[in-house]
Q: What sequence folds into this?
């Protein structure tokens, strides 16, 4: 296998009884790349990551990490992996710094504890017992543990779930910093924005399969040349009339929330305002935005990624 | 080595900072031992309280009463003479252990050469004292029979107490509770934290570092053996300085402690392997804990237990550990040979270790 590829997965399969969790997933991640596995809960993201890490025995397929087939079983490869799992796996009674030092001593080589704690803004909590940390702090500590061995390949399984927006942005900065240092990162998320902000490439997963895989901007471009106009309709929605507005390529209705994908925003807007004047349409909370991965997911699956 | 030390230290901190674990594993057993030792120490000799009702119309009754009250009758009893109703009431209140009733016709029958029946009523609520009471009364009547028949006794008893090392309650409970302490190390110090850590997925997390699983288990088991030694030290310090209970023969004692610790740590791993959640594990653990504690002779003497439990008793590893500890600490004659004690514990260790490996789950 090729040492330049951080991860190579070919036709990965995993079944729990009758339920197919991962249904033939293949992808390759280059060294230095930030790769996102994007999908709703239950899409098979975590199962895929756990199979890659050897925490679950795959039912079929080939996996190689850092050029080593079944790398997760190899101690030398494991020494170069940084892992943050969804369940943080922390010892409750240990203080933050003790936790860092414990994991540091499990690796042949490690970074100074203070440097890592500073990196995830936990330096002030270094003497706090793990059980006294907030959910977000535990999450950041788990990320810190993934960095302690200065790894080449980092797995982050939903690293920002449960974080407040500020903490999420701070963690994004950490991930960007790691990318600058040339680390390879594989992260799973169900936040589209996160994937757009951080990832060089994203694989969109649904029902155990990868349904699209590309650079976020290219994906959006591929499915949407148009701009999205969102609003909340009050009262009855004249669907046919909306579809007939100038520039509208496609419409989407969801519990009173309307999205118009328009290739000619000025004309679509004036048409909308005309309807409002004639009182055939009442709306509020209108926004005009570029299409996002969320729109791509919606178009591909007919569902929103969350909910 | 660096990894083993770090994992050992981490387990030590997890344990020592968890108040419930420290309380149940390190403190409560020794407190129980001292408590039982003091509460059940009783002290002094057991005195039998006898009642005597003399309804005899002739002289014989008075003679017997005089005999029984005579100062040389040092049977370790007190005698209260009185009316039938009063003494019967005292017997029912538990103030008397037995009541002798000399019948109206006593003098008349004995004079005419017939034997007379003396009624003996005794309290059966306490089998120990009732057996003793009946025995003492029988001896008394024999003596009276002899005196009355006029023939000199062929054999005379000359009681002489031999000073043996008297076994105090604390001598019984210290080794017994040390055995229970090691059992609790398996339950509260092994099964419980392992399942808690498994539920928090700590083992999985450590599993994706380059540390081998053998290293993880070695560190964990070493820490638990250390706890076993800490428990033993606590018992020896409290026992020796508080009550003069030490160790009589060290090599078998240390062997018993190490073997016992390993047996119960393995039992803890088996329980953790059987239980799905922390709740189910602790429920199963209690099913093991109670019979083991109650039926192994650690808290109750095995002689006191109904025969029904005998088969369970013979199987429990704690039965043999307690036997070993009592013998090596306070010199009680062991119920089984030392070799048998060690052999049974060794067999348990092998069975439990194999089971623990078979049932082990990382998540």
A:
């Amino acid at each position: 296998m090729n040492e330049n590829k951080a991860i190579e997965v070919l036709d990965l399969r995993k079944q729990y009884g009758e339920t197919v969790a991962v249904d033939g997933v293949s992808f390759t991640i280059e060294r230095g790349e930030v790769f996102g596995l994007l999908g709703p809960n239950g899409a098979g993201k975590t199962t895929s990551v756990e199979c890659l890490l050897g925490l679950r025995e795959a039912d079929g397929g080939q996996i190689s990490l850092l050029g080593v087939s079944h790398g997760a079983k190899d101690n030398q490869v494991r020494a170069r992996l940084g892992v943050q799992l969804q369940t943080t796996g922390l010892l409750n009674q240990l203080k933050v710094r003790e936790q860092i030092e414990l994991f540091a001593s499990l690796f042949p080589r490690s970074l100074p504890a203070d440097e890592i704690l500073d990196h995830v803004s936990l330096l002030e909590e270094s003497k706090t017992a793990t059980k006294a940390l907030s959910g977000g702090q535990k999450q950041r500590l788990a990320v810190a543990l993934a960095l302690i061995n200065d790894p080449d390949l980092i797995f982050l399984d939903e690293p920002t779930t449960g974080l407040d927006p500020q903490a999420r942005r701070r963690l994004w900065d950490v991930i960007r910093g790691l990318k600058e240092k040339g680390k390879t990162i594989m992260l799973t998320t169900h936040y589209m924005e996160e994937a757009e902000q951080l990832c060089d490439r994203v694989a969109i997963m649904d029902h155990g399969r990868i349904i699209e895989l590309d650079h976020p901007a290219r994906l959006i471009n591929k499915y949407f040349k148009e701009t999205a106009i969102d609003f909340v309709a009050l009262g009855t929605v004249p669907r046919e009339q909306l579809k007939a507005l100038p520039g509208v390529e496609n419409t989407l209705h969801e519990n009173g929330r309307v999205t118009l994908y328009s290739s000619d925003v000025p004309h679509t807007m004036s048409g909308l305002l005309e309807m409002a004047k004639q009182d055939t349409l009442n709306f509020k909370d209108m926004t005009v935005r570029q299409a996002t991965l969320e729109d791509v997911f919606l178009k591909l699956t007919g569902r929103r990624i969350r909910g | 080595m660096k990894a083993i030390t770090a994992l050992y230290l981490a387990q030590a901190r997890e344990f020592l900072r968890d108040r419930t674990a420290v309380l149940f594993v390190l403190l409560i057993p020794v407190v129980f031992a001292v408590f039982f030792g003091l509460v059940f120490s009783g002290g002094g000799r057991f005195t039998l309280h006898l009642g005597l009702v003399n309804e005899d119309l002739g002289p014989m009754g008075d003679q017997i009463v005089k005999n029984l009250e005579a100062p040389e009758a040092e049977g370790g009893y007190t005698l209260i003479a009185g009316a039938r109703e009063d003494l019967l009431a005292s017997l029912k209140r538990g103030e008397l252990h037995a009541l002798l009733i000399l019948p109206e016709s006593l003098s008349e029958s004995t004079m005419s050469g017939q034997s007379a029946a003396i009624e003996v009523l005794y309290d059966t609520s306490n089998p120990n004292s009732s057996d003793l009471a009946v025995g003492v009364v029988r001896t008394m009547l024999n003596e009276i029979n002899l005196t009355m028949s006029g023939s000199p006794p062929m054999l005379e008893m000359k009681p002489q107490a031999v000073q043996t090392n008297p076994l105090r309650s604390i001598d019984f409970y210290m080794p017994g509770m040390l055995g229970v302490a090691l059992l609790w190390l398996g339950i509260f110090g092994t099964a419980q934290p392992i399942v808690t850590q498994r539920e928090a997925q700590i083992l999985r997390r450590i599993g994706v570092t380059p540390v081998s699983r053998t290293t993880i288990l070695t560190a964990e088991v070493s820490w638990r053996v250390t706890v076993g030694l800490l428990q033993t030290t606590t018992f020896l310090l409290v026992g020796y300085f508080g009550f003069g209970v030490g160790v009589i023969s060290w090599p078998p004692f240390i062997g018993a402690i190490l073997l016992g610790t390993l047996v119960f740590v393995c039992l803890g791993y088996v329980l953790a392997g059987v239980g799905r959640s922390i709740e189910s594990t602790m429920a199963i653990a209690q099913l093991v804990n109670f019979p083991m504690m109650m039926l192994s002779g650690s808290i109750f003497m095995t002689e006191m237990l109904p025969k029904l439990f005998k088969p369970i008793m013979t199987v429990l590893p704690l039965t043999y550990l307690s036997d070993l500890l009592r013998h090596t600490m306070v010199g009680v004659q062991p119920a089984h040979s030392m070799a048998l004690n060690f052999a049974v514990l060794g067999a348990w260790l092998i069975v439990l270790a194999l089971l623990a490996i078979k049932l082990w789950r990382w998540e």
Remarks:
- The longest strand of chain A covers residues 5-16.
